[in-house]
Amino acid sequence: MIRILAAVLGATALAAPATAQEARELSIPGNPILADGDYYSADPAPFVADGALWIVAGRDQAPSDVNDFVMSEWQLLRTEDPASGKWTHYPAVARPANIFAWAEPDRAYAGQIVQGADKRYYFYAPVMEKNSDAADRFAIGVAVADRPTGPWRDAHPAGPIISQRVPVANDIQNIDPTVLIDDDGKVYIYWGTFGKLRGMELARDMITPKGPEQKVEGLDGFFEAPWIMKRKGTYYMLYAGNKAGPTSDCTPAVYHACIAYGSAPSPLGPWTYRGVALKPVSSTTSHPGAVEFEGQWYMAYHTADAAGGGHFRRSVALDKMEWDDSVSPARIRTVVPTLRPQPAPVPSRNIARSAWATASNYPVPVQFWIKSLNDGITKSAPLPPDMWGSWTQSNPPRQWIEYRWDKPVTLNASRIWFWNDQPAGSGMGVAPPAAWHLEYWQKGWKPVRGASGYGVATGAYQEVSFRPVTTRCLRAVMDASTDGKTHAALAVQEWEALAPEAAPVRVRGQAEAATRCN
């Protein structure tokens, strides 16, 4: 969830729109919309224009082993029928320094396009000021165009409308703007991240702060990515929340976000937390946008589900958003993410994905996630929730992880992928285990017999074969590295349990707990 911070054109320079040759026609139903890994997309902001549903999004460009938001441009997606899977993709419709003379290139983060009363389109974009002594140089500019594809020009060439210096001094990171034009024509803007949300009124010119800037409170677990909307007289705020913990309705892991929401009787509150609209997805960040199109509400969000995707190579998805009007204010029913049709799973010896995972430190510390043990994914540069981990201020000398199946299974091998940030022999941080072994349940825990050897190297699978056992439960018991005084923590990206023969494998949800081994 942590945002990583890191030519000049004239003040009236235009961002070149995509040409007809640059636009791509897509016709594959399902999510994500851009799925082939050729062009990643993130931070979606949907809007309706010219009888079509549009989504403006940033472009993720980070290499697979780089954990940073590398984003240099914005793009558009357009459809006249979301169910059809027919989209037009307009790449590179705008770049920060091409629009704003006062902005640095790159860092094309989450923006929103809104059509004003004058029928022109206004693009609220967070960019970095190139000449600023602010502690955080992110600022929000406004661009204007006659059509969504541009060309876009700076609507306020004097500089950003919001920064740590204007309209009043603030100490927050000024990103993730969202704008609402109310039924009475008044304009409201909201923005913020790292748990700090601000809101204020703009003049009807869509640019001039009318103020005063207000702190928005009452949205439990707010982290970033606000999205303001109105339905049947009630104001709703979607946002990325990371109120984490084993009993949280939002997320068990602090790095991951749910999409939570609150409601208010007026644009600037008071706000009341209402619940979760979208559970955590495959990317650590989550970013919502919602819009009504031809009588149906839709939620746009991003995931890591495209080919080669990841936490910094995200892709936009769109699903229907339904309302429960039996309560007041109306409740947003939890959106169920959909994927485009997938090929049948390849038969595999690895039956870990049909098991329920637990550990000696369950519930695990909130920076890690137990479900990553058997999600079938390893990464060259993982984040903490991509693994099971045991780090605390005081680590025990031994830890274990365990798989449980509903019925007995036969196993004859296992593979484990350790992770570390400290070398073997360390008593701090996360180090490879000093040793480990496998145990199975048979009226008590017993070591597997005939083990071929237990490697402790990190960054690759360590495989051990053994005489076949039939059991409902398997444990990997790990002795922690130590310097003789303290013990290091342990971490595992992936743990496979291998049957003698390949077979179709059911993928089990982590909520489907199996009974204990006793």
Provide tags for this entry.
8-stranded antiparallel sheet; Tachylectin-2, Chain A; mainly beta; elongated; 518 residues; 2 domains; 30 strands; Jelly Rolls
What is the gist of this entry?
The protein contains one helix and 30 strands. It has one helix spanning 96-99, and strands at 24-27, 42-49, 52-58, 74-79, 86-94, 112-115, 121-128, 138-145, 153-154, 178-181, 187-193, 196-202, 214-215, 222-231, 234-241, 258-264, 272-278, 289-293, 296-303, 315-320, 323-324, 331-332, 348-350, 356-359, 388-389, 398-418, 435-441, 445-447, 462-479, 491-503.
Roughly how much helix do the residues carry, as a percent range? under 10%
Structural shape:
elongated
> What is the CATH superfamily of the largest domain?
Glycosyl hydrolase domain, family 43
Q: For the CA atoms, what is the radius of gyration? A: 25 Å
Low-confidence stretches: 1-21
Describe how the helices and strands are arranged.
Blueprint: E1 24-27, E2 42-49, E3 52-58, E4 74-79, E5 86-94, H1 96-99, E6 112-115, E7 121-128, E8 138-145, E9 153-154, E10 178-181, E11 187-193, E12 196-202, E13 214-215, E14 222-231, E15 234-241, E16 258-264, E17 272-278, E18 289-293, E19 296-303, E20 315-320, E21 323-324, E22 331-332, E23 348-350, E24 356-359, E25 388-389, E26 398-418, E27 435-441, E28 445-447, E29 462-479, E30 491-503
Antiparallel strand pairs: 1-5, 2-3, 3-4, 4-5, 6-7, 7-8, 8-9, 10-11, 11-12, 12-13, 14-15, 15-16, 16-17, 18-19, 19-20, 21-22, 23-30, 24-26, 25-30, 26-29, 26-30, 27-28, 27-29
